[in-house]
Amino acid sequence: MGIERKPINRGGIRSAGYDRSARALEIEFDNGSIIQHRGVGEEIARHFLSSSSPASYYKDTIQEEFSQRRIK
Questions:
Q1: Could you give the maximum distance between any two Cα atoms of the chain, in Å?
Q2: Is 44 within 8 Å of 54 (Cβ atoms)?
């Protein structure tokens, strides 16, 4: 079972969700791809999910810093 994602619909990001126990952040992009990042702390995930500019926060803080795998 995947992580429950909530709509974001800003900056090319369609939806995102966080699993605290797995420390996993899952992001669905407008192009349909889904990426999951592991080892993401709760505070970083919370800032990303509530950001007024999630795409910038993603690029600056998450994209290159945490291991990732393509889900779709």
A1: 29
A2: no
**Distance, CA of 22 to chain centre:** 13
* Residue bearing tokens 């393509």: 70
Please report, as a single letter, which amino acid is at residue 36. Q
| pLDDT band at residue 2 using 50, 70 and 90 as cut-offs | confident
Rounded average pLDDT over 29-54: 97
Phi, psi of 56, deg, nearest 5 = -65, -45
**Burial readout 27-61 (b: 16 or more C-beta within 10 A, e: otherwise):** bbbeeeebbbbeebeeebbeebbebeebbebbeee
Q: What string of DSSP letters covers 4-70?
A: --EEEEETTEEEEEEETTTTEEEEEETTS-EEEEES--HHHHHHHHH-SSHHHHIIIIITTTS-EEE
